[in-house]
Design goal:
InterPro entries: NB-ARC, NLR-like, P-loop_NTPase, TPR-like_helical_dom_sf, TPR_rpt. The protein is built from 36 helices and nine strands. By secondary structure, it is mainly alpha-helical. Among the domains are: 167 residues, Rossmann fold, CATH 3.40.50; 70 residues.
């Protein structure tokens, strides 16, 4: 009997013991019968999550690290609060229980020191580890037992290891880290929100847990929602999940709300898109979940409060950064926009926020993103902690000082700052002060530089309204705001408003500023440009010549001096002084080429030169310039940009002069189509473009199309332009010619006779038009005699 038992025992022992990953339960059972392995025991206070879905890649990685060829003793799951770390660990624990039944499994929640102590007491009971003395530390006893090998194979899960003092310890108290066993017989799995703890405990054996992918999120929502018919609207479901950023806790919270209230998905979406205070209420609404700890904060809006409080205690500078970021755009945050401090302290603060997954550093290293729901929760935390107003004012003051203007070393970063300034300024619930309007002014300048004229004028109006309310008429800040508003109106082609404002500014400044004061010269330049657009060309020339004379002491390459010369050249061109204009423009282009300046001003200068050449009969040379601009510069501008459209139009005009009508018509059509989208129907530029398109149609034999446009143009011209205006005369001539072609001869004669009548004197000083109208009138009379029509 004893011999047969010994042989049976020898048969069990003789083979090498199976590896930890050996799935053969019959072998383990034999070993337990033989007394070699202890019975597995379990302490898992959370129920299995029956709705758990997805996360296969993370679970497979855990399986490989814990039971694969290169086993590790410690693994850390790190990620944002609410991303599902606890649920992944819980699912992994149950899979281990099924796949590796010889493993004991223990769970230690570390939300508090008391909770961790209770867990160790429960584990000691399962392991039958008892104190021998009242001074014994049960955590130490459990740790020693698991490390000894007597406990067999085990998995120890340390959940929510987020508090550095509790986990890593302080000078006064040992941390839980010292009670985590190290043994080849077991694996410690840690879940934490902070990378610092993850790396301290598991070194490089860290798995990042991200939000769910689209399919996982849809499946979780599908299994959680009671009202299944709502799932039929896939587009609406996806919109909601995207709004919730595919975050599992947010999805579970939304499902609970919809289930409890029998609410439609669209209603929950509307709540999320409402006022920020309402969004905070929705995201802060607690809900029951038996797969989470009792008494803990289940709502997505409150789950990060513990982390915020920890950061506030550990790293005040990180809280300052968190506060600032919560008021700007959460995505594409340039490092240079952030409040700065000593480099080492700054990097430490950034590291803290990244460690908690509140901030993610992009590959380019100097750009960051913040989770959008964290963004909202941070502001709610600041507001409840009575830091909201001061944090907002600090953010405004910082960005007002930091936002780059032309001439600053970081001006190239301007476009990266714009969305953040817009987000900050969009908060209408906060009191506005000087810094707010300084930032608004700088933002308006940036919009103008980017030729976003609608936005720039809106900024200028707000700033001027504010400064006018408390600053005297001669205050320089008020005058600067008034000048900016005048320029903004001119950019939007509101020339009457612009002229009124700028005339007042120039008059006021002439009495208080020296003639070479930059602010005065800017206003004068802007007024001269407006005069150009309202056909006060001689007045414009007078101002431009004065500015050029005042600036002659500046360096030849000075941008202001070159811009003033460009304005004078355009004025000369409008006045028929083409040779003078061409000389100036060629000089400017030569200088800008030397300085490798290829900005908007340089494009405009080339365009003006092309226009001058076209007007002087050098059509081929003009076409060469216009076509080169189309492919080497204008493509950088918006399709609706006025300079780009003007260049296209001039190219079409040049083609028309050469008889290339089939090339000209599509260009004119495109320009008119674009201008009709952005300009009012009575805008002078639009009317001229329409008139040229109609003329091209007339030449191309599309007479009815021409009439359709010309009747509209002539109607406006007669109401807004003097009788002897050349554009009005040209439109009436073309309409008369079109009427003649389609047999509406009497209507053509009526137009022509009114113009050539000696009594009217309309053509008295316009000999070319007088001859053309008379010739066309004779043709009409001849046709009327022949046909009677």
């Amino acid at each position: 009997m004893a011999a047969s038992y010994a042989r049976a025992l020898l048969d069990v022992i003789r083979p090498s013991l199976p590896s930890a990953s050996d799935p053969r339960p019959e072998v383990n059972q034999q070993q337990r019968i033989a007394g070699i392995l202890p019975e597995p025991c379990y302490y898992m206070p959370l129920m299995k999550n029956r709705r758990f879905t997805g996360r296969r890649s993370v679970l497979q990685a855990l399986e490989e690290m814990a039971f694969g060829q290169d086993q590790v003793n410690r693994i850390a799951l790190v990620g944002l609060g609410g991303v599902g770390k606890t649920q992944i660990a819980l699912q992994f624990a149950h899979e281990v229980k099924e796949k590796h039944p010889h493993y004991s499994i223990f769970w230690v929640p570390t939300l508090s020191n008391e909770g961790a102590e209770r867990a160790y007491v429960e584990i000691s009971k399962r392991l039958r580890v008892q104190k021998t003395d009242d001074s014994d530390d049960v955590k130490e006893l459990v740790c020693q037992h698991l490390a000894s090998g007597e406990a067999g194979k085990w998995l120890l899960i340390v959940d929510n290891a987020d508090d550095p003092d509790l986990i890593l310890g302080t000078e006064q108290k040992r941390g839980l880290e010292e009670y985590l066993p190290l043994s080849d017989n077991g694996v410690v799995l840690i879940t934490t929100r902070t990378r610092q703890i993850a790396v301290d405990l598991a070194q490089s054996d860290v798995l990042d847990v991200q939000e769910m992918d689209r399919e996982e999120a849809i499946h979780l929502f599908t299994t959680s929602l009671i009202q299944k018919p709502q799932l039929g609207n896939e587009e609406l479901v996806l919109e909601l999940l995207t709004k919730l950023t595919f975050l599992p806790l947010a999805i579970a919270q939304a499902s609970a709300y919809l289930n409890k209230n029998k609410a439609p998905i669209r209603a929950y979406l509307k709540l999320l898109e409402g006022a920020e205070s309402e969004v905070s209420k929705v995201l802060g609404r607690e809900f029951g979940d038996n797969t989470r700890y009792k008494g803990t904060q289940n709502a997505i809006g409150t789950t990060w409060i513990v982390s915020f409080d920890q950061i506030q205690k550990l790293d005040p500078l990180a809280v300052d950064l968190l506060s600032f970021i919560s008021y700007i755009e959460p995505k594409a945050i340039p490092q240079s926009i952030l409040p700065v401090s000593a480099p080492a302290e700054f990097e430490s603060a950034i590291g803290t926020l990244c460690s908690y997954s509140f901030l993610a550093r992009r590959e380019e290293a100097d750009t960051f993103d913040m989770h959008s729901l964290v963004h909202t929760a941070t502001r709610d935390w600041l507001r409840k902690g009575e830091r909201g107003r001061q944090s907002f004012q600090d953010a405004i003051s910082h960005l007002a000082a930091r936002f780059p203007v032309e001439g600053d070393f970081n001006y190239t970063l301007r476009s990266e700052y714009v969305p953040h300034a817009m987000r900050l300024l969009s908060r209408n619930d906060q009191e506005r002060g000087d810094d707010t309007y300084t930032l608004l002014e700088k933002l308006g300048w940036s919009f103008a530089r980017d030729r976003r004229f609608k936005e720039s004028s809106e900024c200028a109006e707000e700033v001027f309204k504010w400064r006018r309310s408390f600053l005297p008429e001669t205050d320089l800040l008020r005058l600067r705001a008034e000048t900016t508003l005048g320029i903004a109106y001119a950019d939007r082609r509101q020339f009457e408003d612009a002229s009124e404002i700028l005339s007042h500014v120039v008059k006021t400044q002439s009495g208080i500023l020296a003639e070479d004061e930059p602010l005065r010269l800017i206003a004068e330049y802007a007024l001269a440009s407006v005069y150009m657009n309202v056909k006060r060309v001689e007045d414009a020339i007078e101002i431009f010549e004065h500015i050029v004379d005042v600036e002659k002491h500046l360096d030849e390459e000075d941008d202001s001096r070159l811009s003033s010369k460009k304005g004078l050249a355009d004025a000369y061109l409008a006045n028929g002084q083409r040779e003078e204009a061409i000389d100036i423009l060629q000089h400017i282009i030569k200088v800008r080429k030397r300085t490798q300046d290829n900005n908007f001003d340089c494009l405009a200068c080339h365009y003006s030169l092309g226009t001058a050449l076209l007007g002087s009969g050098q059509t081929e040379n003009a076409i060469e310039i216009f076509e080169r601009l189309q492919v080497t510069g204008m493509e950088t501008l918006e399709e609706s940009d006025q300079l780009r459209l003007a260049n296209e139009h001039s190219l079409g005009s040049a083609f028309l002069q050469l008889g290339r009508i089939k090339d000209a018509v599509p260009i004119f059509e495109h320009v008119v189509e674009m201008e009709r989208r952005i300009l009012p129907e009575n805008d002078s530029s639009l009317l001229k473009y329409e008139q040229e398109l109609a003329h091209a149609y007339l030449v191309d034999g599309r007479t009815l199309d021409a009439i359709n446009i010309l009747e509209h143009v002539v109607g406006f011209n007669r109401r807004t332009l003097p009788e002897n205006d050349q554009w009005r005369l040209a439109s009436e001539r073309d309409l008369a010619a079109a009427y003649q072609k389609v047999g509406r001869t009497r209507e053509a004669i009526e137009i022509l006779e009114r113009a050539v009548s000696a009594k009217s004197g309309i053509l008295a000083y316009n000999y070319p038009y007088r001859q053309e109208f008379r010739r066309l009138l004779l043709d009409c009379h001849d046709k009327l005699k022949e046909t009677g029509n």
